[in-house]
Amino acid sequence: IAAAVDIWAQGPAALPPPRQPQTPVLPVEGERNVLITSALPYVNNVPHLGNIIGCVLSADTFARYCRLRNWNTLFVCGTDEYGTATETRALEEGLSPQELCDRYHAVHAEVYRWFCISFDHFGRTTTPQQTRIAQDIFQRLLARGFLLQDTLEQLKCERCGRYLADRFVEGTCPFCGYAEARGDQCDKCGKLINAVELKNPQCKLCRGVPVVTPTQHLFLDLPKLEGRLEAWLERTWAAGDWTANARHITRTWLRDGLRPRCITRDLTWGTPVPLDGFRDKVFYVWFDAPIGYLSITANYTDQWERWWKNPQQ
């Protein structure tokens, strides 16, 4: 406090000169280097004030603070563009998924410019860099034995000739009887639903009756990582940087035991799976979208690994 009072008394002349911006912003040896991201906004709608407050505004505030401190700061974000919600909205608007993403990415970018959100780079997840990095991570997991194959039962519409993602199915909720429940969740009782559990299911595209069909998928073998993850968590929790809520949620997952998690989907809109027998599938968006942070940085600079593979700085 005494130091702050002293600096305040000296006035602006005592402040260090502002950092001259470099392009691209890269880590600097011996300096404090800060990489900031915020949750990637989904691209199938026009962002509103609640999206901005809940998503990018707090990160923007912190980025401005870091720059005022003269810390070497990179702030990246972008639109999350794969997934069934994009396909659903594209069908509603009579567009291809790519056309829909192009339209709403431009809308998002303009809204954030209007609000003066201080991104160093605002990108998107539908890029060649996203495909390259996601497929590289997948190949590394495969080579190290962290993937497995298993059969899932999914609803298939014979009339449309396609497996139906959760949002392409409607039916009666098996828990409360609501007649317009989606294939992933009931909007009336709020319970999560497996699409094959719906009563009287219908294809949202043609209103045909889908049939349950087995299909092969790839899973991330999370139980194989559980011991290593617990050891890492104990070390990081000891550093005291985790909130109580984050610790509680993580402990709950570990208490119940990690289970294999499916990382593929029978869709066409997404990052292709580069493995024989699965080339007609794409990565499930929960696996693919977080990699967007890396690929957006890679679209900003070809030296992106200096930010993402550089824990010493």
Structure explained in plain terms:
The chain is of the alpha+beta class. Helices cover 38% and strands 18% of the residues. A 4-stranded antiparallel beta sheet has the order 5-4-9-10, with no helix packed on it. Strands 1-2-3 form a 3-stranded parallel beta sheet, sandwiched between helices. The radius of gyration is 23 Å and the shape is globular. Pfam families: tRNA-synt_1g. This is Methionine--tRNA ligase, cytoplasmic.
Topology:
Elements: H1 2-10, E1 33-37, H2 49-54, H3 57-68, E2 72-79, H4 84-93, H5 97-114, E3 121-124, H6 128-143, E4 147-157, E5 162-163, E6 169-172, E7 181-182, E8 199-203, E9 211-220, H7 222-238, H8 244-256, E10 261-262, E11 264-265, E12 282-283, H9 285-288, H10 292-300, H11 305-308
Parallel strand pairs: 1-2, 2-3
Antiparallel strand pairs: 4-5, 4-9, 6-7, 6-8, 9-10, 11-12
Helix pairs in contact: 4-5, 6-10
Organism: Atrichornis clamosus
Catalytic activity: tRNA(Met) + L-methionine + ATP = L-methionyl-tRNA(Met) + AMP + diphosphate
Family: Belongs to the class-I aminoacyl-tRNA synthetase family.
